[in-house]
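Q: Predict the assembly, please.
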Amino acid sequence: MSNFWPTNFALNDTESPMEILETARKQWESESGNNLTLVLEPAKSQGGYDMIIIHARHVPSSRTTTLFSITHRPNAPYPLTINPKDDELPLFLQRSYYEPGSAGFSNIKLALGGGTPGHTVTNEWVCDTPGEFRDKLATVFNLGMVKCEVLSLVANRPPEQASENKITAKKPVEDEKSDP
Amino acid sequence: MDIPDDFEKFCVVFWNVNNKDLTDSVCALASSTGTDALVLNENSVSSGRTLAALQREVSSDFYIPGTRSEERFHCFCRSPRFDMSELHSSRRTSMRKCEIGSVGVLLILVHGLDIRNNDEQIRQQYVHLLARDVSSAKKLHNTNNLVLLGDFNMNPYDRPMNLAAGFNAMMTRKCVTPGYRTFQDERYDFYYNPMWGLFGDKNPGPAGTVYDISNQGPYGWSMIDQVLIHHSIVGLFNDVAIVTEAGTVSLMDENGRPDSKNRSDHFPIRVTFRWRKS
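A: Predicted assembly structure:
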């Protein structure tokens, strides 16, 4: 017998993106011993779409860093897309990256007026349902760039040390001779 | 503008040093301006080496406030009471906690997209993103007390600088007294841009911070290094000046323009805030 019920589709799962992110925020606070929290900032994209920008805050120092954002249509929370932060890493530090192919005969033909071949662009970060958003939200929190940002946020010297003890605020002076 | 005796001051100098080793001039500038904080942009010299020179040549009090984004802005401070530690950063900004008298201020260091490699539309788009970052910063750190300082790579009259959804920066103190204007039912806070007062021939100093008559600089002088002050703290602002000398060293060429051959193609700007002694 055919199955006409959509897969991975639950009528009782209607959580909004903000509700799911609130759950993530509570987990971050709990797992970090209240040292870290997520700040969920509603915003508008340049194109007029609704956004939520997700920042991490190191609570003891109030330092913050922006992790990623999500975008969806106004009054329509799904589908949404997660916009991971551009990692800005040089290629040799990226686990994977796209390497364009070299120009073969077919490419030369295209360059001579053959036009651009159609191709499908897959957006791996689009989520159609709350369940899919939860899965991909877990994935984006596991991106290397997010981990790097948060570790860097936490590892930084708390600003209060700068006012309490000037010596600790000073950066070690480099040996001038070691400069290239 | 002189500071009355019953006032204290906070002075910050910003200089885009154009990727040159200008350490001697930087030290002379810090010394002659008596600056409390020095921000260098596009400094090819390591911050540690610059700090060592400042400590040796100017004052051993100089230190580098806590930061996670040292590459774009090298920031040096003379007294921990001003703090200047970094609270948030993005690719082209660094947001610093700054104590000016009894007022906590968020000092946002800005380096706009350069004119040569980015057309007007791209730079305009960037300003909208930056304005959103600024809006985020206000919410994240629960303050309206913002000062934006840096190389905006735009003039005060360029549209993104004064559009409501851009920086919404106005020409005079009086312009910003209403506090905000409304566009499409959204309120946008005003910023005061004192750089307007430094244009043209009627000022004693140069008419801008860079000089360029190529097709990127059709006006000759441009005022791309700027400071913007949120309307709520305009009362703290004392003055801004374009600096043309670093001690005995002139930063100008024989035509009164930035000496891009021997120094930088930008003049530094010095911003002073003041408050009554308690």
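Chain B touches chain A at residues 45-49, 51-52, 55, 61, 63-68, 80-81, 83-91, 97, 125, 128-129, 132, 135-136, 139-141 (CB under 8 Å). Residues 120-140 of chain B form the longest helix (21 residues).
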